[in-house]
Amino acid sequence: MREDDQSIRQRVDITRLQNIYRATPGNLVATAVVALAFAGVMATVTSWEPLATWLGVLGVVLVGRAINAYNFRRRSRLPGGRDLSRWWRRHRLGVLATGLVLGCSTLVNFEHVPVAYQIFSIFVLAGLAAGALTVMILDQVSYRLYLSTMMLPAAVVFAWYHDPLHLAISVMILVYVVVLIGTSSQLHRKVLQSLTLGYEKRELAERLKREKERLDSRLGRILNDSSNEIFVVDAQTLRCMQVNQGALEHLGYTEREITRLRLTDIIDDLSDEDLHELIRPLVTGREESVFYHGYHRRRNGERYPVEIRFQYSAQESPPVLVATALDMTERDKVRRQLIHQANFDQLTDLPNRFSMLGRLEQAFHHARRHGTLVALLYLDLDDFKKVNDTLGHAAGDTLLQQAADRLRSVLRDTDTPSRVGGDEFMVMLEGLRRRSQALRVAEKLVAAFERPFIIGPAEIYTGVSIGISLFPEDGHSVEELMQYADIAMYQAKQQGGGQWRSFDHGLLQALEERLEMESALRRAIGNGEMVLHYQPKVDAMSGCIVGAEALLRWESPVFGRVPPDRFIPLAENLGLIGEIGRWVLREACREATKWPTTHDLHVAVNVSPHQFRNGRLVEEVLEALDASGLPPERLELEITESLLLQDSNQALETLEKLRGHGLRLSLDDFGTGYSSLAYLKRFPLQTLKIDRCFIRDMNQDTNAQALVKAIISMARALDLKIVAEGVEDATQLEFLRAHGVRIIQGYFFSPPVSATAFQGLLRRCIDPNRREGRRISSAG
């Protein structure tokens, strides 16, 4: 038990003992009066001699207890320890003796008195027992001794008669004793708890008082050591009566100088009248404290922001005002930084989307009042993802910063550019009178992005697509204008980028069609709407089919046959390209197993960047081969240049695993991206495909011919096979054949055809004399 708990328990015991001895005289008088009355009644039916003897014994006991109580009251100090136990024992012995004498009353001529007087004697004892409950409740031991010795002899005497009436009275006496013991126990616990709680409260109050005194003794030192400025001011004259060291250090005054000043000499831009008005709620008692945000002026004239808390005390004479000032210089600096971070993009320092929304609302309100227009230009950089993928995110960040600078260089000071996320920017033009003014700004912005960006040693060309919407002509809310500008920007990008498009409500229909197409595309694979067509790859010398490229087609029941250049970008945006790519792999391998099983008849499948980046390409390819039973050497994967440059180490590891399983690897569309000879040497490629854009221009452009010949020479030097795609006429075929290109793909031989039609081409091309040769005519 803790020391405090022991102290409280001892104090409770002392209080109990004091109250018991204090109540003893009254208890003794009451007992004596009842005993005399009882004896007088009983003397009418029995002789006086036994009663007199009984009364004499009782008198001796009561006198002894009275002497003990008198001695207790005469003691000079509170009992404690052994002394406390001695007084408890004396009291309990007196109670025990009293109970025994009273209990013996039933033995005095009891058998010679009528039953009514016997019952009367029990009522007297029961009354004494009930009366003693209130007196002896503070000591459960005393009460139980008193009750037992007084009532149990009567129960025994009544039981001795063995007749039903006496037995019933005996049982009732026992029940009465049990009830009184239970009741006394409950009351004793409650009284004890009440006393204990009272002393605990007193102990807590004393402890709090001591703690307050201790804190008060330290308060002066604490306030003086505080870095806050604390002023005690005459509430009427506002003259400084006392200040702490923090105030002197911040303001640069001496204590003597500052006590000559009024508080309003320190608080800048606050007059005496203003201060009195500010603290009026304190004087009237409506408020306990008031705050003021302002500036303090140092002795040298410098100003700095403060937050001041005023408190008023009318207990002093004269009443005082306590002002506690906190220097807000650093907090204001942090607050300004946080506000800037919340409203400006960290990379470009342009207003961000959140800030732009508020500015647009204000601009719309101003336009309504003055009858002007507000233009919203939504800008998206063309091919920005390619820059990130090929040159890295650091180069992408630099490009975004330079793009922001280019926006600022074109716009007026009253125009507001912002970065709303990724490679998307927004420009707000205010105070316009005609739509043509916004269109001219868009033209300047498009022209500004036609110049190359210099990032390190590289020149990067990236245009900008711009969508334009006007308030209030196109819409009346920020949400509408942003949506319409975004729709117009998307249309500009769909038309090839590097241009602007002004919103018109016809674009909404196109957007609804796009959303409908997105919904249909999500269901296309499950509904069996995706099919593969195959375009033959032909040996230019022999005319034999050596393989085919699998090309994805979507035959929608709603939109008809949708070209790949329309739904593939949509699938990439929706995150469906991975699922579609896995289906293409499985379907192409399954179909190729139906072709003649010769070593060189292979199927080529394009691999999307998503499949390459998800890290499961090797696993997906092997699953497709296992499911179909197609030998690995009959599957060729066509890889794009940009895919290899995204993560060259990961790309190299993946390609080496695929090559290790026996697959063919081909580089598709060579020369259309950020071509590099380094990865041609590094990666395990077997084939290089000349893009159709070079083949298409060969008949009219000698430069295109020179580029094709350079690509052929380079491929031969690196021991790579060459495939020319997009061959459409005999002149192109002869040029390629003359320069040693063996594998040709294009409409000159055959367009992409269904799987059934391609098998028909294979059957028609079988040479009856050499079954392993497969020839196809130039007519396709």
Structure in a nutshell:
This protein is an alpha/beta fold and 780 residues long.
Secondary-structure-derived class: alpha/beta
Q: Give the low-confidence spans.
A: 215-219, 767-775
Mean pLDDT: 85
Number of helices: 29
Strand content: 15-25%
How are strands sequenced across the largest beta sheet?
14-15-17-18-19-20-21-22
Q: Classify the helix fraction into a percent range.
A: 55-70%
Global geometry = elongated
Domain count: the total is 4
Rg value: 53 Å
What's the number of extended β-strand segments?
23
Features:
single chain, 780 residues, alpha/beta, Beta-Lactamase, Alpha-Beta Plaits, 4 domains, 8-stranded mixed barrel, 6-stranded antiparallel beta sheet, 29 helices, 23 strands, elongated
Task: Report on the architecture of this protein.
This protein is an alpha/beta fold and 780 residues long. It folds into four domains: 3-202; 226-333, PAS domain (Beta-Lactamase); 344-504, Alpha-Beta Plaits; 535-547 and 579-764, TIM Barrel, CATH 3.20.20. The chain contains 29 helices and 23 strands. The strands form four sheets. It has an eight-stranded mixed barrel, surrounded by four helices. α2 packs antiparallel against α3 (82-103). The longest helix is centred in the first third of the chain and has 62 residues, at 164-225. The protein is elongated. Mean pLDDT is 85; it is low at 215-219 and 767-775.
